[in-house]
Amino acid sequence: MSKLEGTDGARRVSSPPTERVMRVLELLAADPERHLSLSEISHTLDISHGTCHAILTTLVGKRWIVRDRHSSGYSWGPALAALARPVSGQMFRPDLQRLFDTVGRQAILAVRQGATAVVTDSVGESIAGLRLGAGFRIPLVAPFCREFVAGAGENTKQAWLSGLGAPSLRLRRRLGAVLDEVRRRGYAIDRMSREYVRVYTALQALVADGEPDEITARVATAFADLTQVDYLPDELAVAAEHRIASVTAPIRDAGGAITMSVGVVPFATMSPREIADLGAAVRATAVRIESRWAAGRESEEKS
Asked: Model pTM?
């Protein structure tokens, strides 16, 4: 039996296929915002075209890397962040409890896992709405999970939008404006509607056992086409009350990646002022979680 590397007289044990995958990831990680073509990656790493294509296709399928629809180039993907920074399901229960006590509505925490966001903890229950307990999964495809992409790089946004296939110019402009607004105010708002409840129920069933597929994308596209996604500033001001399903804010890790979100799911009619107050409470909770997470990492590194 051979000894492991690092011991006296050790014999190096390596896996060339594994090393090739690691070299591809390291190359893309060196410049996460840049798109590299298949030929560039193959030439730079001295990997055959066929082998390189097989590696890239597998990594794209797991969302470890993403392929730009326009340039056909590859770049660093979103799924690795969740793998590199695992989070205990109830690590931030005190923060959720504090949010619930403040607003009197169900509070949830979601973690990015591959091409989906999964609820890992919640406090309270939504009597009128969906059952958004631990394990509830939603695909990271437009127009959903906007809080995860609004503050991310352009590659991540384009990958998110590409899930819609070929959206109309009107829809593309709408979603672009919405992402800008979510980034500005710090949280996303989901309108409550009959369609919202139905599509979330359908999507939950579609992604329960794996990654989003073509059917999931088509359901998301139909929903985006038939409903008004989120709110722009002037839209909140035109009515005295709005029916709100959820308000969610992004949570960044110590490296700046958005890997979690915290939210409240009121499923209630609210005034613009109440929505703003709820958004402020959710955003403040996100900031506290970010601070506690960073403090926990520093403590681990010192120990």
From this structure: 0.69
